[in-house]
Design brief:
heterodimer; A: alpha+beta; 4 domains; 5-stranded antiparallel β-sheet; B: alpha/beta; Glutaredoxin; 5-stranded mixed β-sheet; two-stranded antiparallel sheet
Chain lengths: 635, 173
């Protein structure tokens, strides 16, 4: 009965979101009060409907109701209960439900926290969001209904959740990412509403900023968690694979970063109004495009979802409707000229412009690299190629370098014109000294310096020095100065830490394939690796071969376990890497194949500074979240 | 001139949507497999009926043939079973079973009770051959032509409709 209730709630949601999608706008345009509806109450009821509908799916998972097709495909009686819970969003259908829930959560947060002076404007934002949610709900009901039953003979047991998703990081990675994606709906709705009602650039930019920042923060967290998960779960020791699905999240991230920077300028100086509108539209569009690429089956990826071209057409339809619609409004509208104070090349405005240009070119190149294999396949009648890491790394490097250099001086720039560039001397001095210190530390830690890492390490120092501005003469107390810009300090220093991590880990990592039998020892770097024993272990829904490994150096001994798991319901194999985490490096070992009776292959890696990548990302997410909340408080 | 720049984003986006749409209509809903147009992978596994009998790819001798991945734990396979029996009864094409991660005793009981449409079944307890074939799950069916080349695959239940749409054409080549 519960799945049916969930299904009905979803249908009611569909009807109400349809009403919410056009009634408030109609009442504004006809200037007729009869169509006016209490939008706050409606938003709240919509939230309740989708929340209860989602709960009923969760419930079906928890009680192992395998007559529900989606449950039987993604769960199993032996699955631990927390994974049953997480399996709710473990595949396409359920994740859509979560997505709608997230959009609704964003919408009510916006309506209750952002006070807009113009009622029509709020009505329009509400309506546009309702239209987006309506289309997602229609998509769910028509092509991906999670409540579909298998009757009359329900299976006795389910097929189990995809084993590589049975993991703690996985339980929170998708929700964070979906919150990030769906949050971009708000800036989109604001941008369109601003065009419809000729809202002042300064005004709508102020409304949009916190929500862009918060979505970006969620995207950062989602991407970072996904990367961490891939690192220890896929067993390759990599942290970024340029997989289409990763790119699909990275592109909207880049655009949302560009957007909130451009919004700063729009709010403070009325500049880049049209540009900010376009960015809002495209940030939202790329988040939908990512969904399309992943779920239509036209790209194959590690993250394959249930593939169904019919779904692809539908998502493309949604994408086309909203983006073409909004761009049509954009192209037809006569924008009134904002009063803009003039600015010069040395100004903060120009800094933001450059930042946006670099980020957007980067986003377009990555998007192109992701779609290019498709174009190639179509043009050559089915020959397949894959655009791999080399392409993306070549593209990324110069732009990241330019962005980093800009980031170092960005906080010194002033609106209109920067009167003096004297700070460059001090900035260089500070960053060079920091660079020296870090090289010294690296040399002490690893007895080696790699020229290839110098550029990225220096860049990290440059950004840190530019952000902290230790030597900048101020009457204010230095700590008060930092406290005033806490959010940006966290985010920019986070970026520096991330850059440092990437630089060091790409140059200093070492890896080796080993073939060992129990009792064997091997010298690797300054570590002595001992393959102590191998044993059979049994989990709730898997059995595994687990190898006990000991890492030993002069200072300490640590033992880890790496496993080859076979999940019983599906028969899938996964590798669990054994990782020893030290402050400055990870010792990473993953089990390979069983070559003969007791002979196993292993891949062992030492990954210096890899944790710093995620630490950096966490700081970025924290910084942008802080900035977002500050903005909400101020408005 | 200024208007032209305002229309540009729209134009670019419409082209992008058009391109993506054309990809979508090009792409049929078959699963990509590296093995299509490849010869059947080598294997050496015991027979379901007799665990001392070792089967290899050479035992799949009557061609063209279907390879059907099945198991007793697979409910959909039971739905598919009558259709396979029909193919057998009407001697349309020989079918070789790939018994996938199953219990030997239960599998034999099922064949005894419901009928055996297979020439023989390969007993793939660890799913080794299934991995080589890139099997997604049971049921799944592969078409092997008279030269031993995999020509088509289908994930899910094969019935009259699927047989006509996907497999029948290869039979009369």
């Amino acid at each position: 009965m519960t799945p049916e209730i969930g299904h009905i709630l979803l249908i009611v949601f569909l009807v109400l979101s349809f009403a919410g999608g056009f009634l408030p706008l109609t009442s504004v345009y006809l200037k007729n009060q009869t169509f006016e509806i209490p939008i706050k109450k409606l938003a709240f009821s919509l939230f309740l409907l989708i929340f209860l509908s989602f709960l009923s799916l969760v419930y079906s998972f928890l009680i192992d109701d395998f007559s529900v097709a989606y449950v039987s495909q993604n769960s199993n009686t032996n699955l631990p209960f927390y994974y049953k819970f997480a399996a709710t969003w473990g595949a396409h259908e359920g994740s859509l439900l979560l997505w709608i829930l997230a959009m609704n959560a964003w919408l009510i947060s916006f309506m209750f926290l952002t006070k807009c002076s113009d009622k029509n404007f709020t009505n329009a934002v509400f309506s546009i969001s309702c239209q987006v949610m309506f289309s997602f709900c229609l998509f769910t009901l028509l092509t991906s209904n999670p409540f579909e039953r298998i009757l009359p003979i329900p299976p006795l047991n389910g097929a189990d959740l995809n084993p590589s998703l049975q993991d703690i990081a996985f339980t929170i990675h998708p929700p964070l990412l979906y919150f990030g994606y769906s949050g971009l709906m708000i800036p989109f709705a604001i941008a369109v509403a601003a065009m419809l009602f000729n809202v002042d650039t300064k005004e709508w930019a102020a409304y949009s900023r916190p929500w862009t920042l918060l979505s970006c923060s969620f995207l950062t967290l989602g991407i970072a968690l996904g990367s961490w998960w891939a690192y220890y779960e896929l067993g390759w020791g990599g942290w970024w694979f340029w997989d289409p699905v990763e790119n699909a999240a990275f592109v909207p991230w880049l655009l949302s970063v560009a957007l909130f920077h451009s919004l700063i300028a729009s709010q403070s100086r009325s500049v880049f109004g049209k540009w900010s509108i376009l960015l809002s539209i495209f940030a939202f569009a790329t988040s939908l495009l990512g969904t399309f690429l992943v779920r239509s089956g036209i790209l194959t990826s590690v993250h394959a979802f249930a593939l169904d071209p019919e779904r692809g057409v539908f998502i493309l339809g949604i994408l086309g409707f909203f983006v073409i619609g909004s761009l049509l409004i954009y192209s037809l509208k006569d924008f009134k000229k904002d009063e803009v104070k003039p600015y010069q090349l040395s100004s903060k405005e120009f800094g933001f412009l450059l930042n946006n240009l670099l980020l957007v070119i980067l986003a377009v190149s990555i998007l192109f690299g992701t779609i290019f294999p498709l174009i190639y396949e179509a043009a050559t009648n089915g020959k397949q190629i894959s655009v791999g890491a080399p392409y993306f790394e070549i593209i990324l490097f110069p732009f990241a370098l330019a962005l980093g250099l800009l980031q170092g001086i960005a906080l010194y720039l002033s609106w209109g014109v920067t009167s003096s560039f004297n700070f460059l001397q001090r900035l260089t001095l500070e960053s060079v000294s920091l660079f020296g210190i870090i090289l010294l530390v690296l040399f002490i830690l690893f007895d080696n310096l790699y020229l290839s890492s110098f550029a990225t390490i220096f860049l990290a120092c440059w950004i840190v020095a530019g952000t902290l501005q230790v030597s900048k003469k101020r009457n204010l107390n230095y700590w008060n100065f930092l406290k005033k810009r806490l959010a940006v300090t966290f985010a920019h220093v986070g970026m520096a830490i991330l850059v440092l991590g990437v630089g060091v880990v790409t140059s200093y990592s070492i890896e080796k394939e080993l073939i060992l039998t129990p009792g064997d020892e091997f010298e690797f770097g300054d570590q002595k690796i001992t393959f102590q024993s191998i044993e059979d272990t049994l989990g709730p829904n898997y059995f595994s071969k687990s190898a006990n490994i000991i890492f030993e150096d002069e200072k300490d001994i640590s033992s880890v376990v790496t496993e080859k798991r076979t999940y019983t319901p599906s028969g899938q194999l996964t590798t669990e890497a054994g990782i020893v985490t030290e402050p400055f490096q990870d010792l990473y070992i993953s089990m390979g194949d069983n070559l003969e009776a007791d002979i196993w292959s292993f891949k062992v890696q030492i990954k210096p500074f890899i944790r710093w990548i995620w630490l950096g990302a966490l700081l970025i997410a924290f910084g942008s979240m802080l900035a977002g909340f500050n903005r909400i408080q101020r408005s | 001139m200024k208007k032209l720049i305002d229309i540009l984003p729209l134009v670019i986006f419409v082209i992008l949507i058009g391109v993506l749409f054309s990809f979508l209509s090009n792409k049929n809903n078959q699963l990509e497999t590296v093995l299509i147009d490849d010869t059947f992978p080598k294997f050496s596994l015991s027979s379901l009926e007799d665990d001392s009998r070792l089967l290899t790819q050479l035992d799949i001798s009557e061609l063209p043939a279907l390879i059907n991945v099945w198991a007793t734990w697979c409910i959909a396979c039971r739905v598919e079973h009558p259709f396979l029996m029909k193919l057998k009864r009407e001697s349309i094409i020989p079918i070789y079973g790939l018994n996938y991660k199953d219990n030997r005793r239960k599998a034999l009981e099922l064949l005894k009770r419901d009928g055996n449409p297979f020439e023989f079944s390969i007993f793939d307890f660890e799913g080794r051959l299934a991995i080589d074939l890139g099997v997604y799950g049971a049921p799944e069916t592969f078409f092997i032509d008279r030269n031993g080349v995999i020509r088509e695959r289908h994930v899910g239940i094969v019935d009259d409709k699927i047989w006509e749409e996907k497999f029948a054409k290869y039979l009369y080549e």
